[in-house]
Every structure is written in C-alpha cells, then in structure tokens.
Amino acid sequence: MKKIILVIILTSLSFIGFSQDTSSEKTSIQVDFDKKIGDMSTMWAWFGADEPNYAYMKDGKKLLSELSAMSPVPVYFRAHNLLTSGHDTLNLKWGSTNVYTEDANGNPIYDWTRVDKIFDTYLARGIKPLAQFSFMPKALSPKPEPYEHNWKPGMPYNDVYTGWAYPPTDYKKWAKLVYQWVKHSVERYGKKEVESWYWELWNEPNIGYWKGTVEEYCKLYDYTADAAKRALPTIKIGGPETTGPSWDKAAEYLKTFLNHCISGKNYVTGKVGSPLDFISFHAKGAPKIVDGHVQMNMGTQLRDISEGFRIVASYPTLKHLPIIIGESDPEGCAACGMKTNPQNAYRNGTMYSSYTAASFARKYALADYHKVNLKAAVSWSFEFENQPYFYGFRDLATNGIDKPVLNVFRMFGLMSGKRVETKSTSKYDFKMVRDSSVRGKYADINALGSKDVNSAAVMVWHYHDDDVTAENATIELDLKGLPVGKLNFHHYRIDKENSNAYEVWKKMGSPESPTQEQYAILEKSGQLALVESPSYIKTNNGSLKLNIKLPRQGVSLLKFNW
C-alpha cells in the first residue's frame, strides 16, 4: 500500500485547537485534493543578497546549509558584485571578487580565487548559482573614482551607485572576461553542472545600478550573451532584471529589451535578435507607518508581478520562456534596518512570515491567470555578517539565529506535486489583493493546497496589512479526497510562542552578547517546532472537517500520514 502524507499550513499567532466555536463570523475553506489546478513548483527555493562574500563566512555557511536542508530540490542563490573590484569586506550592499585587473600595458589579469570560493561554498551544500555578470571592474570603468562606496543605513540610497555602475570602456575586453569566466567554470565544475545554472546580466538597469542607456544595456547584453554562448553553447542566459514593471518607464525598458532580443540588430553579429533563455524582473511592496504601526502593501508587489507577467504574455514567441522574479519582497532595501527605516519593523516577527505565506500563494495564482511559466521568485533575503542581533534587516537569520520567516520556507519544503482546488468564503481573492491590498475591516483568510503521489498539503493564512492586534478568525476546514482510515498527525507552528527566536530574545532582555547557554536556547527556538505530541486522527470516508482558531500573523503546519 502506498504511503501518503498530508500537510496543512496555517497562519496564526496562537492556536486554540480543534474545537467547536460559538463565534458568529466564520470562514469556511474547502480543499478538494482530487481536483488538480497546476504544478506545486519550488519557485520559492531561490534566495539572494547584495553581499556575495558573506556566503563563505561563518554564519553565511551555516544559513546556506539550512537552506539546502529544507528544500527537496537544489536551492538557487543570486548575488550581486561577482565581478566587482576590491577586497573581502563586511560592508553593507557591497562585495567584491577582484577577478579582473590589468597590467601596465592594459593586458587583462584574471584571478578566480574569490569567485571560486563563493561558488565552491554553494556547491558543497548542493546549492546552485544564479550567476550574475556584474558589476563593472574598476579597470574597465570610464569613471572609476569613486569606486567602493561607504554606504550605511540612513544614508542617501544614491550614495551606493559609484564607478562600478557604468558601461565598459571596451566592450571586447568585457566580452573576453565573460568568455573566460564561463570557460573557467566549465573547466572547474564540469559542463553538466554549469549547464544547470542560470546566468544573467546586471541588476536593475532601469535605475541607479546602471549609468548607461537602455541601448547600451542591450549592447552589453549582446556582447555578454555572445561570449557566454561561445564558451558554453548550452548556457542559460537571460535578463534584464528591471524593477517595477508597473511603472511606465520600467515597463518600456523591459519591452525595449524584449523587442531587441526578438527583432533588434545584434551589436556583435549584425544579425537579427539575441539569445534569451529566460526573462527576469523585480517586484517590491511598499510598507509605511500609519497611526504608529506598520502597514504593509502587498498589492504594490502583486501589481508589479501581474504587469510583468502581462508584458511577457503579450509576446507569443516569448511567453513560454521561464520567468525569474529576481527579487520578490515586501519592500526594496534589505540593508535598511528598522532603526533608520521604522516601516521595516515587520521583519523580525510573524508579520513577515504571514506576508510570505499569503504573497507566495498569490504568485502561483497570477502565473495561472496570465498563463506564463513562473520558474522562480527570489527572496532577496539572506544574512548580514557581524551585525547586531535582530537589527531589523530583511534577512532570514541574525548571527546564526533563524527568524520566523525562515520557517515558512521550511513549511513550503513539505509541499509538492500538484496544486489543488481551494475555496474560501473570505472577502479576498488574488485579484482583490493585487488591486486593493488587504485593508479595512476584513482580513485575508485563504488557502493553498497541494497533493503528491505520497503527500498532500493545504496552507491557510490569516493576514492583514496592518500590524495591529485583532480578534481570532474561526475557520471551518472541509478537506476532501483523502484516504479512508486513521492518519498520523503532527502539528508545527510559527507564532509568538513557537518557532520564534525573536520573542525569546526579547524575553531574555534583548542581549547583544548572549551567553553560550542563551545562544543555544535562541538557536533551538528558531527552528520549526511541534506544538503538541503526534497523534492519530480518523477521516470520514476520505473527508476531514476541522474547526480552527486562527489569530492574525503566523504560520502553522499540520501534517498527516498513513
């Protein structure tokens, strides 16, 4: 007899259990595991950071190992600054490999030591690169000074964009650098391995990261793609990683690039078009402070995603290509902590985890709606080495202590197979969240279900943009399409009391230098936790009805197997 596992994910702050409720307002959620609607892809298993050198540092290696362990497929990692000149650094929004310098006669000198160290760290943990050709080495920049910035949280964001952001002085030298890097990667890691990676050009060229024109970006893309394909004809390369597709100018930038790849004159070959193996863009939300509390804006992020999908779908020859949302986050600056940017105070606790659960479900729905091939949604969130505990960066862990949001991805790792039909009496569907976000009297209480050969799952969230206390939701779950008989039941939880190192740290008095004993407690409290001992629960001819009390913000995982 085949073994089958059922997993249920629920967002909450606390759990009252399976019980009858006398509340007048209830939300009914139906899940039919026999009605499949699409793939339960692992598009969530992609992460990234500005600072590539953190990967091989103490806490970076620890977190990469955890990311790999939680995913049933290889995790992909995207990083900036892989070609930037300089030295190992702990500076925010910076990193360097110093792969390219020149001798006194202008001849190239290649040094792969540091970029190899980064990729070796990934591969040793089963993680694959989304390798980025960026940024401009100092020796190829037309305005090399100033080059390395000294940005700190609270400083103007434009201080970041220095000499590394310019087009090259010599496109052929740039192309040779691209060719040599890909060739070196194949020699070091093998053709089959490098074929499994994704490669891209630059980051957000429609804003300060690129000091050239859109035409110059297209020119650089042609030189980059041509050189990469000469080194490895089967390489997967794409772009343009623009941000804000819902902005008019950003949309035009994306369309200009796509038109160039389809019908433009190639700057290298003189022929029509340029190779394009995937399409990438970014989508961000926009939290703010309202009446003394954080108010998220999921709608802003979803509108970016929806418009990006719509643009891609408008090209008949491109709509089949994989789409990578290269950064998909609640807002735009991972290194802007909550002390300098108080609207980012959502990041340490359960607001971030419930937002993640609800928003990722809507990414699946938007891809279905636009009929596009969503490959990945990169969470631009990693860790910041040697920074204060729980400073409020957009990160998954702080000083080696996992935050609640990381446990949402652990839960996603338990969902697989096909997504199944779910219905909720909630006021919201994905279009309403996209168009209006989650505001006013009603919260967003909905579900995402999946079923595999030996497993099934349903994710349920109780989310609202306003980070304020509210009454619990009473939810009636009606699950159909399960096997007949007893199910072994495990219940995991993210809330104020479970899987939440932040609340434990605050109860300790917010120590900046935890003792060894305190650190061990924090480390354990950051893991995904059971809230009760495993038990058995019986279905009624393959159906199961549960009444659940679900407070605002948080995540629960109910797992059944037999």
Describe what this molecule looks like in 3D.
This protein has 562 residues and is of the alpha/beta class. It folds into 2 domains: 5-39 and 417-561, Sandwich (Immunoglobulin-like), CATH 2.60.40; 46-412, Alpha-Beta Barrel (TIM Barrel). It is 27% helix and 25% strand. The protein contains 12 helices and 25 strands. The chain has helices spanning 58-70, 113-124, 171-189, 191-195, 214-231, 248-263, 298-313, 350-370, 404-412, 430-436, 501-507, 516-525, and strands spanning 5-10, 27-39, 46-49, 76-79, 100-102, 108-110, 128-133, 198-201, 237-243, 278-284, 288-290, 293-295, 322-329, 373-377, 397-398, 401-402, 418-424, 444-451, 455-463, 473-480, 486-494, 529-530, 535-538, 544-550, 555-561. Strands 1, 2, 17, 18, 19, 20, 21, 22, 23, 24 and 25 form an 11-stranded mixed beta sheet that branches. Strands 3-4-7-8-9-10-13-14 form an 8-stranded parallel beta sheet, with helices on one face. It has a two-stranded antiparallel sheet with strand order 5-6. A hairpin with a 2-residue loop joins strand 11 and strand 12 (293-295). Helix 3 (171-189) packs parallel to helix 5 and helix 11 packs antiparallel against helix 12. The termini are close together. The model is unreliable at 1-24 (pLDDT under 50).
